[in-house]
Amino acid sequence: SQLVLQNSEKLTVAGQLAAGIAHEIRNPITVIKGFIYLMKSGYGDKEEYFTIMASECERIEQILSELLVLAKPQPIKLEPKDIRFIMMQTVTLLHTQAIMSNVEIATQFEQGVARVYCDENQMKQVFINFIKNAIEAMQTGGTLTIQIKQKDDDHVIVRFIDEGTGIPAEMLKKMGQPFYTTKENGTGLGYMVSKQIVENHSGEVHIESEWNKGTTIEISLPITRNS
Ligand code: ADP
Ligand code: MG
């Protein structure tokens, strides 16, 4: 269910989003409406219809909850945090999913990394999204290496290096466009939302990828100023 926009570069981000939301939400609603009509006419297996309708509702909910991060920008609560700690908590959270996918998560955290002014919950959300994408890209397993190190006096960098499918060059251009997904159950919002959160923290996201080799996502975040 990939949205194809012609002249997409001429659309504003808000315009792309609006078009995407309309498209993505109309599909499940069409399905639900269809089943309601069928049931009204007394056709088919109601139990089966209910299951599909519930899963279509869940899909809408998933899309909306991811969008809310953008639509209702929560006031970011910036506090000096050790992001190695936030990362460890996130890795623990996703440990089971990694094991089930045969993915080993290797952490390489430099000693004495400075604290970063960030909103802990939002940063967790970013880490979850990038780790999930990495795991999902390694269909036959592999190693996800997560590095945290000091870049210079003012920045800390976080790298997610996976051994997954990689992203073909022509697809790389589409990263960050809302609803761009290659997954059957993907929303195509995780990357965009994460990038937005990092930029709200005055940080940057860089992506490097090679088809059949893997992907590296690098986040650069400004550190706490001494005061
Ligand atoms: P979703 O995960 O729901 O598809 P995302 O916005 O998180 O949405 O990612 C969009 C698309 O970018 C994915 O469907 C996938 O094709 C590609 N992608 C993102 N991260 C990676 C990665 N680490 N390796 C390979 N492809 C990736
Ligand atoms: Mg994702």
UniProtKB/TrEMBL annotation:
Q: Which residues of the full protein are shown?
A: 488 to 714 of 714
Q: Where is the Histidine kinase domain?
A: 20-225
Domain of life (superkingdom) = Bacteria
Q: What is this protein called?
A: histidine kinase
